[in-house]
Amino acid sequence: MSEAKKQEARKIPYVAAIKEGVREVLLEQDNSFVAGEDVAGAGGVFGHYGGLLQEFGPDRVYDTPISEKAIMGLGVGASATGCRPIVDIMFIDFIGECMDEIANQMAKMRYMFGGNATLPVTIITMSGGGLSMAAQHSQCLEAWLAHLPGVKVVCPSNAYDAKGMTIAAARDDNPVFVVFNKASLGMSMEVPEGAYEVPIGKAAICREGSDLTIVAISRMVHEAMAAADQLKDLGLDVEVIDARSVQPFDTETVIKSIKKTHRALIVHEAVKFGGIGGEISAQIQEQAFDYLDAPVMRVGAPFCPVPFSPVLEEIYIPNADTIVAKVKDTLEL
Amino acid sequence: MAKKIKAKKQAAKAPAAKNKKPAANNKKPAAKAKIAAARKKPAVKTTASRKSTPKKTRKRSGPSDQTLKELHLKMVRIRCFEEAGGQMMEDGKIPGALHLYVGEEAIAAGVMQHLSNEDQITSTHRGHGHLVAKGGEFKPMFAELLGRSTGYCGGKGGSMHISNLELGMLGANGIVGGGPPIAMGAAFSNKFRKTKNVTISFFGDGASNEGSVHEAANMAALYKLPCIFVCENNGYGEYTSQANHQAIVDVADRAAGYGMPGVIVDGMDVMAVYEAAGEAIERARNGGGPTLLECKTYRYYDHVGMRGMGMSYRTDEEVEAWRKRDAIAGFEQRLIELGVMNRKQVDSIYTRINNEIEEAIAYAFDSPHPEPHELLENVYCEKGA
Questions:
Q1: CB-based contact, A105 to chain B, within 8 Å
Q2: pLDDT category, A7, cuts 50, 70, 90?
């Protein structure tokens, strides 16, 4: 938390931290606005824009049609011409509706134009399961985005980061996706008032340890922390790293940790096959192979859509127990 | 909120294509016959809301001689650029593919005549003409087509992504239907920043079937944005005729569904385009919201490159019929009749422009290729706000 101006931290939930972050941006940047489905009148389907319309008025907070191509196009066109838009894609599952605007326009415009275009646009979206919202409202698709040169992707795991990364994203002159986790919205922690940044591209070491490094993304950080407690009882001293940003990814912090612990496990809620964990694992083997005492482990969702049934969904989403089981199995504990 | 609701109401009240029928009884065979007839007979003379009628009534009351000359010059500059570039591609001197704008020049010229550098456009894969008309210079354009570091995009964009933001040209686009959402966003920005600027989105009849176009048009109408959707209907989506890619004849019919005026104009008549675009742009500058302006036109050459005749997907007779209505030749005849220019002056313009092109091509070939280290540059912007 060293980045924070240590002002009167108080405990607020993740969802309120998002709103505070957006509010700070609207206060400090006259050329910013929020546009998305149900963000104005309803204050966002999760309440993370509640009151912003009342405070900033209809010229700063816009309800859009249910029209993701237009929303993303709005972000691209407005950011290329002097605005700093914050556009909201209600669920990350909906990015299929606007993937051309993301992948072929937003991500590439600066490069294709030889550096002559700058797109300071922030895209806020929600990912993650655990709420019985089934296959089209529960996915973790951060890897789709991280594969695109030209955009940045951050996945805040807690309220402090949620606010600080929103502000950092809006101050960044690149397209930045802030991928929040909807099962974490009620999770409270100390969050300072006022504006502060959590830098994009810097991982956080949440817990230091010497025997195993767990690199976790978004809500899986909390599961990893719980798993670390359990593993402690088995005599394993676990270091937990919150990746925070998947594009750019803080390889340096991870490699440094692996060189100390000699064992690595990556945890994300996204489907394991083709997930960002495969990339992280490859980087570890490229850069720290000689330091490894065990195969790099991965925990992710199985290769199937997110089920609706609460019973099946509980099996589907990784948790502390599945993490512990994986470690025990691989290390033969 | 109040503002939004108001905008909605006004949009609904907009004079949406008054004298137009609702979009087509798509499946009736009669509709197909109508389409075929329309394509055979290129002379289109329908208009939804144009007030002024051209030709006879205009003498000195119309645009100034200067404007007429500029319109002509824009068209000739495009034609010469495209002919030269196309030949270079056919000769294997330009890497990749060029989509040539030859035949459609009147649209870019007639629309761009109303714009300043602060007004933006989004273009298409057939985009050189738009950039030339927006003020693009030949040297950096040819350099870009050759992938040289002196090109408008430093050689990283090429034909399909050629752009110049200082000129308000937000890029050619390799994705059919890629431009309209961006144009709508730029128009939103113009309104948000309280400027009087407008954004033009060029797209084709092929793109008119893309969802992105509908979403952009809907949002533009909803927010009453200063955005003009200019459909360059050249009768083909790549190699597929309009009759085979949509069940309507007039893309402008769709304007009613967006809540904006739809106007159809002869895209081979630069004055008709100039006047119709002028009205739409004026309305947009004054807060009247978007317009869908459909320009009936024709692509003389193939989807890619310079082949024009003997194609499997269209007849030579069709090409010849449209070429007889060539926008530039027709306009030159008119200028000579009006006494704005004589033949000799017209000819000297070609000489001058072709000289300029020759010089630009030499410049482009002399220009350096990008350095290897440039490969990874400009993926991201390094500085923050």
A1: yes
A2: low
